[in-house]
Amino acid sequence: MGTRLASSLREWMGKHDLTEDDVGREFGVHQSTAHRWLSGVSPGASTLQRIAAKLEVSVDTLLDSDFDVANDSIGMAVLASDELHTKISRFADTISALATQDDLAVRDQKILLITAEGLIESVDELRPSLAQVVDHLKNLPST
Which of 13, 23, 95, 135 is deepest in the core (most CB within 10 A)? Predict the structure, then answer.
């Protein structure tokens, strides 16, 4: 998923002579996030809707999907997953940047550590149920 998004963004960038930095600024994200979009990673649902509006196309067109993302539970689950991935990536980037600051106060270091450990714990709690879903889907008969 996301290849249609990447090609649409590249086309829009070419028409307006924009760089990845420009795309990042336009949508309020870091250049590395714009780069991920151009590499095929879809943004979260709200950002995807903003991109679609800016490019004057539908979200379905950007996803090149055969279902109505706004009204389809599978589409919503995919978008929610993409949005969560984007948020976790943004959080990890922020934590990494802050953690490398030499002048970070001890109190702030502890807050970042607790926050990062909490996120790891949350992801670890989800891992077994997600693994069950993956195993189930892998064992479904092909149609």
Answer: 23
pLDDT of residue 40: 80
Location of structure tokens 């539970």? 73
Listed in sequence order, the residues at least 6 apart from 82 whose beta carbon sits closer than 8 Å to its beta carbon are 1, 41, 42, 43, 44, 45, 48
Read off the pLDDT of residues 56-112 as tens digits, 9 standing for 90 and up.
Answer: 887 777 776 544 444 556 666 766 776 777 778 788 888 888 878 878 888 888 888
Task: State the Cα–Cα distance between residues 74 and 77, nearest whole angstrom.
Answer: 5
Burial class of residue 36 in the structure, from the number of CB atoms within 10 Å of its CB (0-12 exposed, 13-18 middle, 19+ buried): buried
Per-residue DSSP letter, 18: -
Residues 6+ apart with CB under 8 A from 77: none
Give the distance from CA 28 to its chain's centroid.
Answer: 13
For residue 107, give both structure tokens: 């109190």
Six-digit token string for 48: 């995807």
| Distances in whole angstroms, Cα of residue 63 to Cα of each of 82, 106, 117 | 12, 44, 34
